[in-house]
Amino acid sequence: MLQARWRPAGHGAPGHPPPALAAWLFDTGSLTRRLRAACAERGQAFAVEVLRTGRARLLNDEAAALGCRRSGYAWVREVLLRAGGEPWVFARTVVPLRSLRGAGRSLTRLGARPLGELLFADPQVRRGPLQVARLDLRRPLYRHACAPCADAAVALWARRSVFHIGGRPLLVCELFLPAHPAVRAHALANVPER
Questions:
Q1: Cα dihedral angle (111, 112, 116, 122), rounded to 10 degrees?
Q2: Which helix (H) or strand (E) segment is 8 a member of?
Q3: What is the pTM of this model?
């Protein structure tokens, strides 16, 4: 099983994402806030669709990012962030079981509330550096993300970072789906003429 190759976000990102998408990938602010603003500009509703929550096995690259042992377990939440009903972003939150103590307990009770609201509202939460990767069908995260999408692209860009709540880590990964305006615009710009 091929794991993703995550690299530090910035100009050295593999394959150089298109500028419109790079603005989303490298933004260190709240993705939830930015998505809500984009929805408001378009007159669309923002919604979180919970796909899965519960205990699951860590992917190898997730275990490495979190300093956990390989083939360990974590609490995982997978959601689609939708604009006007369209899935714009797939988000996977991975919380080591040891991080579910104290303030981390609230992570298991989010329901359809966006995680960003919790993370960016707490001044005690610390965010590590952003990493980006270009994912395709060979990557497990891509397969998780694109299962609910009818029009999966050949390769999609994702970003991730480790957050710390009360000194305990959790990993948030966000994959930008084909319906996202920056992904769609780039795909349309690269359609060959007939």
A1: -40
A2: strand 7-8
A3: 0.87
